[in-house]
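User: Predict the complex with zinc ion.
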Amino acid sequence: MIKKENACVDCGLPCMGKNCPYRNITVLSCDICDNIVDELYEYKTQQLCNDCVTKEISKEIERDGDVENAEEKIEQELLFLGKIII
Ligand SMILES: [Zn+2]
Ligand SMILES: [Zn+2]
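Assistant: Here is the predicted structure with zinc ion placed in the model:
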């Protein structure tokens, strides 16, 4: 998901409050593992990091019982997924 994070750590006292440039940083976080990443893949209804989306796709391939060339299929599928990058 795309979320806003308060990344103000120590910008001196007093902090500029809502004008602090670090207060509302947009970050991308994976819906499954919660990791903050540079890019998210839109997979079905979720927004996932590279690791998680790869796992999800492999699960799907296993479910279909067609595990031959699984890696290639994953790569193919990743190309077609929407990406969110900040
Ligand atoms: Zn601040
Ligand atoms: Zn993840």
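The chain has one domain: 2-85.
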